[in-house]
Write a structure and sequence with these properties.
The protein is mostly beta strands. It contains 2 helices and 8 strands, in the order αβββαβββββ. The chain has a 4-stranded antiparallel beta sheet with strand order 1-2-3-4, with no helix packed on it. It holds the Pfam family CreA.
């Protein structure tokens, strides 16, 4: 009984500490593949778990073909991000500069895509940076979006 309770508590802690999940908005095919799914570009929506009133839209390529179908393909590093205020902005917890808000694997072993958040308190702006990092080559591919923290008028 104690083991089950401990396992449930650990699982809950891991889920609560995990970065945000993205909701797929849609995909378009970019290259036809005779075997397996086509190459495509997908757009996801992501809400910041520590900041209400901000939504980021992330576009990223997805490799198709046979290797993509079985999960062995390495997706390209290109991605883009656009974040907007969609309601009153409320910062629910202390924000750590460079904190990972969203993460996903882009290959079986070496590549990840991460969205990191910064808070520019001097200018009252949230900054979201998407980086595709590869264990060996570093993090050259990136995109950035800023959200000024403004009063929200309900109409």
């Amino acid at each position: 009984m104690i083991r089950r309770l401990s396992a449930a508590l650990l699982a809950t802690t891991v889920v609560l500490a995990a970065p945000a999940a993205a909701e797929e908005i849609g995909c378009i095919d970019t290259v036809f593949k005779l075997v397996g799914p086509n190459h495509k570009i997908c757009v996801d929506a992501m809400e910041d778990p520590k900041v209400d009133g901000v939504v980021c839209h992330l576009s990223r390529p997805v490799t198709g073909g046979l290797s993509g179908a079985v999960g062995l393909a390495e997706d390209p590093s290109n991605s883009a991000i656009a974040c907007r205020q969609v309601g009153p902005i409320t910062i629910k917890e202390d924000l750590e500069d460079g904190e990972v808000v969203f993460a996903e694997r882009r290959s079986v072993l070496f590549k990840r895509l991460r969205v990191r958040r910064f808070h520019d308190t001097t200018h009252n702006v949230l900054i979201y940076l998407v980086v595709s990092d590869k264990l060996i080559e570093g993090s050259p591919k990136h995109s950035m979006s800023t959200v000024p923290i403004m009063p929200w008028r309900a109409e």
